[in-house]
Amino acid sequence: MLTQLHKVEQQLNDVILGKTTQIRLALCCLLADGHLLLEDLPGMGKTTLAHALANCLGLSYRRVQFTNDLLPADLVGLNIYDTRSQQFHFQAGPVFSQVLLADEINRASPKTQSALLEAMEERQVSIDGETRPLPLPFFVIATQNPMYHAGTSALPESQLDRFMMRLSLGFPDKKAEHALLSSDHNGSRLNLLTEQLERQHLLQLQALVPQVNASAELIDYLLALVHASRQQQDLLPLSPRAAKAILRAAKAMAFIQGRQFVTAEDVQQVFPFVAEHRLDPHSNAEVQQHSKNLLRHTPCQL
């Protein structure tokens, strides 16, 4: 199955040109059963990445355009009364999909943003007193525009904390952009994709990631980073949930590279993308200043 996973990664690299690091991190986030926040300018390929992931993995995919008048019921669904049967029937919202793209999430009101909290954390939604489970796997990819764009509402810390990782795709390099423009006459690059991994196999891979070994020394190093964040007066401290997210992401990074043990390099690779938006909710996704300072000043004995 790991071979199929690498084929998924290769196909994604064929569609999203010049972004190998971000694609690997996105796959790590999915394998670790987390959720992904993409922060970037419009037109950088955020929507394409979400659609490509769903296509490669054969998962159901829904896209919701978040606007300031979007209501929670538009997202999770609602009970509709049928006058003929004199009964209420539940009409599921787009959240009942395996890959949900919450496009421009920071354009919606805080009330609508919070409608995702239960779904992201507990893989279920509660509507009119009834709890309904979501399909598995359930992977939210949310995009947001930079804070200086008009019409945006900053995500609260509780919502940011539900996202395991925050990434920025950024501009492609000159070679990748040249290749993108040269193949423009061929239509959408999404047409190149074929399903490489079945849903059941993906669930099996997700179940294998927690079994990757993390030594006591490795956990001590991770805790040193977490505790260092709690000594900084100008930063939000990393919580135990954040520490678990860092460890799960590092295990997924080791797994995707074919190893059954986590190294310090795995932790260092994922740390800025898991920690920065938790340390400073107003930080820029392209600059991981605070997390890199913690990595620089926290000694590693491994």
Short description:
The protein contains twelve helices and nine strands. With 302 residues, it is α/β, with parallel strands linked by helices. The chain folds into two domains: 129 residues, 3-Layer(aba) Sandwich (Rossmann fold), CATH 3.40.50; 96 residues, Orthogonal Bundle (Helicase, Ruva Protein, domain 3), CATH 1.10.8.
Domains, number? 2
Tell me how many strands there are: 9
Fold-level CATH name of the largest domain: Rossmann fold
How are helices and strands ordered from N to C? Answer: HHEHEHEEEHEEEHEHHHHHH
CATH architectural category of the largest domain? 3-Layer(aba) Sandwich
* Main β-sheet description: 5 strands, parallel
Cα gyration radius (Å): 20 Å
| Strands in their spatial order, largest beta sheet | 2-5-8-1-9
Distance between the termini: 30 Å
CATH class of the largest domain: Alpha Beta
CATH superfamily of the largest domain: P-loop containing nucleotide triphosphate hydrolases
Taking pLDDT < 50 over at least 5 consecutive residues as the criterion, the unreliable ranges are none
| Strand residues, percent | 5-15%
Principal-axis shape equals globular
Helix coverage percent: 40-55%
What does the average pLDDT come to? 86
**Secondary structural class:** alpha/beta
Tally of helical segments: 12
State the main characteristics.
2 domains, 302 residues, two-stranded antiparallel ribbon, Rossmann fold
Describe the fold and architecture.
The chain has 2 domains: 35-163, 3-Layer(aba) Sandwich (Rossmann fold), CATH 3.40.50.300; 202-297, Magnesium chelatase subunit I, C-Terminal domain (Helicase, Ruva Protein, domain 3), CATH 1.10.8. The chain starts with a helix and ends in a 5-residue tail after the last helix. The model has no long low-confidence stretch (mean pLDDT 86). The radius of gyration is 20 Å and the shape is globular. It contains 12 helices and 9 strands. A hairpin with a 2-residue loop joins strand 6 (124-127) and strand 7. The chain is 45% helix and 14% strand. The strands form 3 sheets. A 5-stranded parallel β-sheet has the order 2-5-8-1-9. The chain has a two-stranded antiparallel sheet with strand order 3-4. With 302 residues, it is of the alpha/beta class.
